[in-house]
Amino acid sequence: MNATITAIGGFVPTSILSNETISETVDTTVEWIEKRTGIKERRLATSKDQATSNLACAAIENLLENYDVDRKEIDCVLLATTTPDHLLTPTSSKVCEISGLTNAFGLDLNAACSGFLYALEMATTMIESGRYKKIIVVGADKMSSIVDYEDRNTCILFGDGAGAVLLEKTELGYGMMKSILRTDGSGTSALLVPAGGSKFPATMGTIVNRDHYIKQEGAFVFKKAVESMSSVSQDVLASNDLSVKDIDWVVPHQANLRIINAVSESLNIGIEKVKVNIERYGNTTSATIPLCLWDFAADFKQGQNILITTFGAGFSWGATCIKWGVMRKRLPAKSSKND
Ligand code: UT7
């Protein structure tokens, strides 16, 4: 028995932050951003009722509206996020309430850009244990709540969004294969929000220092991302007895188009097999991979092999393979993609 993805949903806010607008506020150019990152625009959750829980619920609602699944049958919601609504209380409890998942328990999981992949692995083992039948894994981040729009090193990169998948069991031989997930603390100071947690609780000083915003040593993180995503992808292929020739699609974390290109080159997988939507959404952290699965779901055919790989703060990184299976029945479309 395997766990397999049977439904997908996604959501991005309507408000667009373009490179043109950023170049009017910090010392950068439209050309620099596009050439160095591949990003043309990102979406921002600007309305007051768009906290991370609302983004997650919008993605779940999109999934439930489009696929024939009863929300009362959902056993569990694993929410990967690095931007919870509050430090205390879990954002997933709000998600269960708003989405009417009255028979589910919710759990927040923070592993930065690797959160969705980690949550997917946890859900896989929960399904394969036989104890849970239907789990929603959602990656949602409102990065605009921790981005310093005066810092040209980071404000060009991030956007807001959410993506959700439904995981169920199958006995047809499709679904989740072996994963390799890794974490070490070597990158703690290279990518973090310094204050607001237990180490440096909020003070007037932390606010004045802008320590509640993301700080990143971009070039160092870039190098580690390329090395880690390339080597963990090779390892996960080997552990699943697959070679690069067996891979139909790659769905990488979307942090920088140059990272994606370098990983594809190092794996010797043609870029035409690599799914990319960073130009429209930027880096949505926990949401990049499910948003990519949602965006390109129509391209994935039954029996195709998909390689997923990620890298993020911590450092945290990993990869998995999926043999794409049978999706649940589609319902007549109710909502457009980007509302
Ligand atoms: O998702 C989590 C993981 N995160 C990532 O994987 C992100 C990894 N890092 C990156 O994507 C890239 O490192 C950045 C896009 C953040 C920066 O690109 P880079 O090519 O690594 O630039 P750099 O940091 O090496 O800086 C090169 C130059 C510097 O100027 P000098 O010192 O050479 O004069 C920077 O000050 O580019 C300058 N620079 C900029 N110039 C114009 C940095 N940001 C900007 C900017 N516009 N926005």
Write a structural description.
The active site is at residues 113, 253, 283. Belongs to the thiolase-like superfamily. FabH family. With 339 residues, this protein is an alpha/beta fold. It is built from ten helices and 13 strands. It has one domain (1-339): 3-Layer(aba) Sandwich (Peroxisomal Thiolase, Chain A, domain 1), CATH 3.40.47.10. Helices cover 30% and strands 24% of the residues. Helix 4 (91-98) links the parallel strand 4 (76-80) and strand 5. Helix 7 packs parallel to helix 8. The model has no long low-confidence stretch (mean pLDDT 97). Bound molecules: oxa(dethia)-CoA. Oxa(dethia)-CoA is lined by residues 28, 32, 36-37, 113, 152-153, 156, 218-219, 221-222, 225, 255-256, 259, 283, 311-312.
Strand arrangement, major sheet = 1-7-6-4-5
Count of individual domains:
1
Question: What is the count of β-strands?
Answer: 13
Give the helix proportion (percent range): 25-40%
CATH class label: Alpha Beta
Assign the CATH topology: Peroxisomal Thiolase, Chain A, domain 1
Q: Which regions contain 5 or more consecutive residues with pLDDT less than 50?
A: none
- Sheet with the most strands, sense and barrel status: 5 strands, mixed
Global morphology: globular
Tell me which CATH architecture applies here: 3-Layer(aba) Sandwich
